[in-house]
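thoughts on my protein:
***
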Amino acid sequence: MIRTLLITGSTDGIGFQTALALAQKGHRVLLHGRSSSTVNQAKVRLLRELPKAEVEAYAADFSSLAEVRRLAEELREAHPRLDGLINNAGIYKHDRVETPDGLEMTFAVNHLAPFLLGELLRPALLLAPDGRIVNVSSIAHRMGDLTFSDLQLKQGYDAYRAYANSKLAQVVYTAELARRLGPACTLKVNALHPGVVSTKLLVQGMGARGPDSLEQGASTSVFLATDPSITQGGGYYVRSRLSAPHPLAADPLAGRKLYDASLKLVGLGEGL
């Protein structure tokens, strides 16, 4: 079955490799980038490698909730039914910076933007017979903590802590959304660690390099977005295998608190 799949942050690195791998399998890929110029360049690059690929380009700055809403509206108009959303976009900020919405930047881009996008696109994803949401987290989530009185890290900001917290939020939200959807729902949501790849985020953000290739980094996202063996949601995968996440993922109270706090921060109602 040919799927229509949105991959956020797909202008380079793991995101672009994920889009390329999906296009190679014959799926329609919807590229996303922060600006029209970068995402259109990525589209040209992908079509240069796969001239017959079905590919579209969408731009939205995830530091703006209004931009996320606009993107969701564009996608719903273009694709009333969507087979998959791969939340790959992410940042690492050395200093505490606030978005135009007054939100801490790392938490906003890495968790709140994909949270809002997923909430707004859920009706389109539920129309698919086998819809998927794939949240690209990180092994760094194990070092995170969710202090609900200070999710914005107004106290004790540290770059790695902010990043780890945002990735933990993705994993906890994944488990909570799966609980809310229920095992019988056609939409499956899972999270993953892509490996340690020398992406721009790792090299420029953390000053480190990794042993894994881009192909290895993309493989678990492709697996979770397309493989028919995925019949359950709420999992955390490493190298396409279920792995044990942070204990908070199994805590329904933490999941409810994060979900409710996220709804409030993005300006939505009661949610699912």
